[in-house]
Design brief:
The chain is an alpha+beta fold. It is built from three helices and six strands, in the order H-H-H-E-E-E-E-E-E. The protein binds benzylamine (ABN).
């Protein structure tokens, strides 16, 4: 017999002499019981709850790009520039021509028609850039593209920031 076979045979025999069938069954039982109890141990799920709370509050925060009304906005949020989500900061004027979008409000499960006016008359605000552009088409469909300075028709065509004004409920 080759020496490696002999080593294995001797160690198996000595293990068998030292171990009873009952002790093997007892050890196996302990392992199986531990495995069955493992799913019952408490698990910390607080981080997942905190993440979903943060996502919900972003949908409700006018200074967050995730705010539900901003679904088709492209620009700096006026709510971070001295104005609000729907009113221009002092010293600027809203553009008469705008981009129109439809956003879903999760709070009441309705769709709203939203006008995205640019606020004009001061240089770029630079705060809270937000580029969501839901349903926007690429530049080659110019009439369906939102990457436009809507201040172009204002006396002072300097772009400062963008607001989001609800025009009404979108009928299904
Ligand atoms: N509608 C915001 C904007 C302004 C200038 C250039 C691109 C987009």
């Amino acid at each position: 017999m080759r020496s490696i076979d002999r080593v294995f045979e001797q160690s198996s025999r000595s293990l068998a002499q030292r171990t009873s069938r009952r002790s093997v069954l007892a050890a196996l039982g302990r392992v199986l019981t531990g495995a069955a109890l493992l799913p019952l141990l408490p698990i910390d799920r607080s981080s997942r709850a905190a993440a979903s709370e943060a996502a919900a509050s972003a949908l409700d925060n006018p200074q967050s790009c995730e705010y539900w009304k901003y679904c088709a906005i492209d620009g700096f949020l006026c709510s971070c520039c001295g104005g609000s989500s729907h009113s221009c900061p002092p010293g600027t004027a809203p553009s008469p021509i705008t981009w129109i979008g439809t956003c879903h409000n999760p709070a009441d499960a309705r769709d709203y028609i939203v006008s995205y006016n640019d606020c004009c008359g001061k240089t770029s605000c630079g705060n809270c850039e937000c580029n969501r552009n839901e349903h926007e088409k690429p530049m080659y469909r110019l009439s369906r593209n939102n990457d436009v300075n809507w201040c172009m028709a204002n006396a002072d065509s300097n772009y400062h920031c963008s607001v989001s004004v609800i025009l009404g409920v979108a009928e299904p």
